[in-house]
Amino acid sequence: MFSLSGRVALVTGGNGGIGLAMARGLAQAGADVVITGRDAEKGKAAVASLEALGGRAAFLAGDLAEAEDCKGLADKAADRFDRLDILINNAGIVARKRPEALTLEEWNQVLATNLSSAFLCAQGAYPHMLAAGGGKIINIGSMLSLFGTAFGAAYGASKGGLVQLTRSLAAAWGPENIQVNAVLPGWIATAMGATARAEVTGLEARVTERTFARRWGEPDDLEGIAVFLASNASNYITGAAIPVDGGYAAAG
Ligand code: NDP
């Protein structure tokens, strides 16, 4: 039920952090995995770590803030291992600023990287999933898909938008056996998590206190949901936004 043997996955931003952890989960379940990012050195190391798990892996360099880079990505990934079954839209950035200080350029950069790239990559993946008889798209949202913060105008808009994009794609492509879901990670100890801890006074303790698990998440905490949503085990789940947050969103 959870086997991904014979399937090919594309994970954007898969060269580090949460993306690499999810790519690891898919590789362990038997998928061949294509990861992307801007940093080719990180990409090379990530591919080696995925190949060490026994499957095939490849890195594609590209800047997902650029529409042209997004458009060809699914075709390139499908060319690499002859098909494309799974897309994880994970690449993301944050502009941690109050709205009155946020420039239009920063706003556009965040929206292009986090939201428009997901739309364009999904559009690129669609014909390959149709050819395969179905597919799985997983969009990585955030707690800021649900909550507001004073420093999250662009990021929160992009992550809230991803949840609505998820529902729209699920509605459009459900009849064609393509399931589209969002994962909403809690506070996770990655490079992005480290800048949040450093830049937001008191965040470290506030998160630990509110999270039922009483700890920040680790990238590995996202491996299981990636395998579940990419596999046949989730074939009747679509249009959902699932928190993986140690209970943070359920806390009063
Ligand atoms: P990292 O900063 O560790 O990783 C971000 C990834 O995105 C990297 O692989 C990076 O690769 C890639 N990326 C960023 N910008 C671009 C771009 N313009 N083009 C291509 N790739 C890009 O962050 P996380 O692993 O923490 O974040 C992964 C996702 O999870 C993001 O969408 C984030 O918003 C989300 N998330 C994270 C949370 C956390 O607490 N850490 C909480 C909730 C959601 P490269 O640098 O090589 O370009």
Automatic annotation (TrEMBL):
The keyword Oxidoreductase applies. One of its GO terms (molecular function) is glucose 1-dehydrogenase [NAD(P)+] activity. Residues 7-176 form the Ketoreductase domain. Its EC number is 1.1.1.47. Keywords: Oxidoreductase. Belongs to the short-chain dehydrogenases/reductases (SDR) family. This is Glucose 1-dehydrogenase. It comes from Acidisoma cellulosilyticum. The lineage of its organism: Bacteria, Pseudomonadati, Pseudomonadota, Alphaproteobacteria, Acetobacterales.
